[in-house]
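Let us work through a complete example step by step.
Step 1: write down the sequence.
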Amino acid sequence: MRWSCTRCFSSIKPKPSGNLQPTNAINNHRETILLYRALLRQCTYLPDRAAQEYMRSHIVERFRAYQPFTRDKKGRLVRQKIKKQDPSKTLKGARKGLKYLQRANDGHMPHLQTVLDMTYGRVGKRCRQLMAKLQAPASLIDAPLVTLPAEPAPENPVPKRKVPRLSDELQALLKSQVKQDSSRFQGAPVKAVQPNVPQVNSWGRPFPQNRKANFIRKWYATTMERLMPPLSAYEWERLRGLASGEIRWDGPVPRRRLGTTAAEIVEAGESSNRPLAMHSHVPHRLTSSTARIVEKGRHRDTNTNPHELTPRLMRGMWSRVFQKCPRLDWSDEKGKWVVTWGRMGKQADLVFDAQKEIPNGMFDGVDEDGKVVSKIAVPDPEDSGEPKLAAT
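Step 2: predict the structure and record it as tokens.
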């Protein structure tokens, strides 16, 4: 009897009070705050100031999307709709993003290149935002985007469907990107300026209007994913200065020692060139802000090696981004949009106008086949007759 009573009372569990929260929720809340602060801290260590601002705003926006309350334009608290997701999945994505920023700050070139591409709108959300500014409103299928063959009017006409239309800016950008070298861009290149809609189907009948609209819509979506959006004049010129070295790079951001503040570092007179014990996950072989590699080898969780963040390396990183950035300007003389692409390294110095006259003496010493000749005809100043042959 005693055993049965003990068994009954042991099965009774106390009910949690209303002020208590589950342990998992408390742990998730604590880890969320730690990840949020760690992500913002890593943003301050990025070697590009524009990347610092963009990544910080992107992280803040992503975390605020899961807040139950937000403020409207008048500053009032308003409850917002939150998409229900598993907290473990969202925290997993935050941890992944934190590792990605840490590797970019350590000098892993693929990770740092992706961060710069996201900053300047070559990939990611900002790329789609820049492209949305150039898109024109949809129009009917008879738009001048594609020339359709004349068809007899059917007895039961099908309502025409609206298809996207290319604006003047997009047409100029599309024609310019098709002529560029496809190796500088990521993914598949843009091959066609307009969709190649077949006139008849496999049965030899006129192509249906619905299929034409779907064909154009699919081509438009694929083309928008491969186009590189143009940058503003200020951002394009700044990126050109960074890639060419005209704008001086301030160097890696110094990292704080454990238990110190930024004010204490300034008072101590520590510059970015002095070694610091970093308060981060950086390995011991990268114990200075210049990321001097003491021992070679790869990290356990990545297949790339960290590099020292030097001005030369950063100019190469900016040059790779700059060659994928067009600039769109309106020309009053030509009466159309003109697209200017960035050039990598010294390519701009090697390009000359083919319509101008070739400088004298550029091809002296070679024949028509491009072979070097042993003797060159040199005019004799004392003799006004035929030039004499002089040995090279």
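Step 3: interpret the result. The radius of gyration is 32 Å.
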